[in-house]
Amino acid sequence: MIQSNTSNTREDLEKDNAKLQKENWEFRNQLKVGCSNTDHNSLYFQLERSKNESLRFQQEINNLNQNLNLILKKIETLTKENESLKQQLDSLESKVNEQTLEINDKVSKSEIETCKQEILLLKYKSKYKSDIIDKLSFKIINEWIDDVKTMDFELIYHASNNFEKSSFHSACDGKGATITLIETLDGCVFGGYNSQSWNSDGNWHGDDKCFIFTLVNKHGIKPTKYSPRKELKKKKYVASNICSGPLFGRGYDIGIGTINGSHQSFPFTFVDTTGKGKSTLTPTKFFTIKTIEIYKCI
């Protein structure tokens, strides 16, 4: 709009200038023909005025041209700045979009993982109704055994306030891998995982997959898995005989239903990683079972 108005003004000035030059030419012709002194003086003054007007108009035209050039240069500069800003905005928008996608991806992965955990907990809630542990503890034990596979746990033995060796062997011998859960009268909860079958021959066996654990203890130690000592040459990790229930560790880290009752000598075969020694599982060597449960791992 500025350029259009400037152009119109310049054209008007140029027309006026041309008109004055024409009049000037006509006055000159009249002078050549001849006239009176009065007429001559009048025409002379008119000619001078026309000449001055013409110079003024020309100067205004020059000024307008200069202003127009300045405006055009300013427009060109602003156009370049605008293009630069547009490129910066496009680059910034691209980065924002990339970061948004990354955030959405992370949020989505987090939401998916949360849903998986909730589904897993619901699965445990619907299947396992232990008198000793909650559903989250089943999930923790599952991860200790296999952090990839979701396992099923089938209750095959349960006893409260007493322990019958014969009923244990009848229910558990030859059933494959199991977890043993023990709750004592003083509120401690612990147990062990046997990766192989129980039997009644009294021979020690097992492999490096066997472990014992604490879930509730007097030290406030969080649920912890204790693995066998690596330096042991013979795999004497689990055993049982007709005179006892499940035994974990050659030194009876956990011994259930022995001729001396139920007791623990942890740490002996299994490594103490929490530093509380013999009082880790229970405050005393001997303990009284409140409830014992044995689950087959499927």
Automatic annotation (TrEMBL):
Q: Which UniProt keywords apply?
A: Coiled coil
A Pfam match is: TLD
- Name the domain of life this protein comes from: Eukaryota
Indicate yes or no for the key word Coiled coil: yes
Q: TLDc domain: from which residue to which, for each copy?
A: 131-298
**Which InterPro entries is this protein grouped with?**
TLDc_dom
Name of the protein in question: TLDc domain-containing protein
Residue spans making up a coiled coil are 3-109
